[in-house]
From TrEMBL, chains A, B, C, D:
SUPFAM superfamilies in the record: Flavoproteins
UniProt-listed InterPro entries: Flavoprotein-like_sf (IPR029039), FMN_Rdtase-like_dom (IPR005025), ISF_SsuE-like (IPR051796)
Transmembrane spans: none
Protein name per its UniProtKB record: Multimeric flavodoxin WrbA
Keywords of the record: Flavoprotein, FMN
Residue ranges annotated for the NADPH-dependent FMN reductase-like domain, each copy included: 1-105
Molecular-function annotations in GO: oxidoreductase activity
Organism, scientific name: Aneurinibacillus migulanus
Amino acid sequence: MNITTFIGSSREESNSEQLADLVTRGIKHRKIYLKNLSIQPIHDLRHAEGGFQLVSDDYDTIIKAFLESDLIVFSTPIYWYSMSGIMKNMIDRLSQAIRDERFPQLKEHLQSIEAIVIAVGGDEPRIKGLPLIQQFQYTFDFLNMRFSTYILGEGNQPGDILQDQQALYQANLLNKRLKHL
Amino acid sequence: MNITTFIGSSREESNSEQLADLVTRGIKHRKIYLKNLSIQPIHDLRHAEGGFQLVSDDYDTIIKAFLESDLIVFSTPIYWYSMSGIMKNMIDRLSQAIRDERFPQLKEHLQSIEAIVIAVGGDEPRIKGLPLIQQFQYTFDFLNMRFSTYILGEGNQPGDILQDQQALYQANLLNKRLKHL
Amino acid sequence: MNITTFIGSSREESNSEQLADLVTRGIKHRKIYLKNLSIQPIHDLRHAEGGFQLVSDDYDTIIKAFLESDLIVFSTPIYWYSMSGIMKNMIDRLSQAIRDERFPQLKEHLQSIEAIVIAVGGDEPRIKGLPLIQQFQYTFDFLNMRFSTYILGEGNQPGDILQDQQALYQANLLNKRLKHL
Amino acid sequence: MNITTFIGSSREESNSEQLADLVTRGIKHRKIYLKNLSIQPIHDLRHAEGGFQLVSDDYDTIIKAFLESDLIVFSTPIYWYSMSGIMKNMIDRLSQAIRDERFPQLKEHLQSIEAIVIAVGGDEPRIKGLPLIQQFQYTFDFLNMRFSTYILGEGNQPGDILQDQQALYQANLLNKRLKHL
C-alpha cells in the first residue's frame, strides 16, 4: 500500500496539512509540498497541431507519484471556496499527463487509486466547501478513481484545526482504517 | 460604465473567449488575457509576522482593472469542473490585494462592481458546471459584489461554442442589456 | 414518441406549467396535474415483513404514464429551493413502484426514458435552483434515465415567466427539437 | 431552551430518528412524528383573490411547535437525494403560515430559532446529500433562522446508523453541546 499526500497550502504547517498528518500518522507515506515544486499552468494544446509540448518543470514528480501510489490524499486549504491555485494547476496538468506518450500506463493506473480529500477553511466549510467536494467527485468519476471519503475541517488561524473535534475524530477514524489496509 | 473581461483560457480564441466576445460585442471594454500575465500563486501570510510581502509580478494590472471597472466578466474554460488554474491564482491573490495598503479603496470599490461569469466546458457543463457557479456566488457574496448572471456553454473543439444556440442566445440577450447600461 | 408532462404546481396556469406548455406546444402529449390526483406519501416498508402494502390511491395513473412514455417533462415550481411536496411524494413512491410485482417491466422501461426538468422560482432560480437540478440528476442516474436538459425560469406573480426571455428561448429551442424527434 | 424534533421518516425507529435521538439524549425535548399528522400539501394562493384559505388539518401543531421552540432538529431520511415528501409538505406550508394572520409573531420568532438537520441515506449520503443541505441552508437564510450544524449519516437497513461511527460521534458532540445550552 503506497500512500502519497499532496499538500496544497502555501503556508508552513497549515491547518489542512496538520489534518492530513493525523490521517497518515504512524503510516509510511510520501508527502509532496506543491509549494516547493515548479508547476506551470496547463497550456491546452489538445486540438492544436502537434498536440501538447513537453514542459520543463517539476510535473514529472507528480506523475511519478500518481504512478507509484495506491492511495492519494489531496490536502488543500479552502481558498475562495475551492482548492488552492497551486493544487488546481496540478490537477489541470493531468489533462496533458494522461495523453503523454512517456506514461502510457498512467490513465489505467489512475483507475486503481483510492482518493481522499482533506480541505480546511474558515467560512462555514461544511456547507460552503461542498461545491469543492462535488468537483473532486466529478473529477474522480471522470478518471475512474475511487473517491472513498473526505474531511471538511474548520480553521483560520494556524493551529485552529486542533479545536475542530469533528474533523479530528474523522481523521482518527480514517487513520485507523488506513493502518489496517 | 467601465467593463473589463478577464480571459482565463490558455488557448487562443478559446470557446469561453468567443462567448465573452459576443457578450461585449460593440461595447467599449478592456480585455485582459491572464495567460499573458505573470501572476504568482498566493503565499498566505495573513497570520505571519509582517503579513503579506510585496510580490513582484503583474498582479497590479489586475488590481487596477478591478479599481477601474464597474462591471467585470470572468471568462473561463471549465477545466476539471472548475475555473482554470491561472484564473484561480488570480482570484486567490485577492486575499492579499484587499489587505494591500497601497490600495485602501479596493475592498469598498469591489462592492460596487457587477460580476458576470462565462464558463464553457465539454462534459455536461449545465449540470457539472454548477459547483463552479456556486463557488463564484460564495466569493461574490463574501466581497459584496453583485453577481448578476452567468452563462454555461458547451464546447470542446475550438469553435464548438458557435453551435450552442442556448449559450449564443444568452450572450446576445446580455449584450443587448449591456448596451443599454 | 410518447410524451408526458407532470405538472407539480398547486396553482392554475402556474409559471412552471406555462413554460412546460411552450416546450410541448404543437406536439401531441399527455399532461397530468398532480394536484388533481390523490397520492399518498410513501410508507417505507422495504425492510418490513411482507414488504410494501398495496396503496389505494391514484398512483397507478403515474406508473402507467411512466410505462407508456418515451419522454417525461417534470414541471415544478421551486418551493423552498426544491420541488413541490406533491411532486416529491410522487417521486418518493417510485421506490415502491419499482418493486411492485404488478409492474415487473417498470424498472427496465425507465432506462429508456428521456427526462426534462422545468422549474420556475422567484428567488434567483438560476443559482438557488441548482441543488434541485443536482437531485434530479442523482435520481435519474440511479434509475438510468437520460437527463437530457433542464430549464430554470424566473417568476413569482402569475404570468411572470413570459418576461423571462432566456427561459422562453430555451423552451422554444427545446420545442423545435422535440418536434423533430 | 425549548427543543423540538420533527421526525420525517415513514418508518418506525428509522435510522434518521435514531440519530436524532442520540442528539437529544438526556435532554428535555418534544418530538413530533410527521407521519402521524395530517398535513395537506400547500395550495399556493399567494396571488389569488382572498389569499390563502384556512386549511383544516394538523398544521397548527407545526406552527405552535415553531412558536414554542428555541431550537429545532429536522430529522429526515434521504429519499431520492432530498427530504421525505411529508417533511417537504410541512416546509412548503410555511409559505402560508408566515402570512397567517392568526400567528402575526411567527415570522419574527423564526429568526430566533437555531436549526439542526439530521439526514440519513444509503447512497453516499455525505456527497449526494449535499444538495439537500444547500436547500436547507437557502431556506434558513430566507427565514433568518440560524443553521448551526448538520449530520449526514449512512444507513439503509433498520439500525444501520449504529455502525456509522462518524455520524455517532457527531451526534455525541452535538448532544454535549446541547446539554450545556
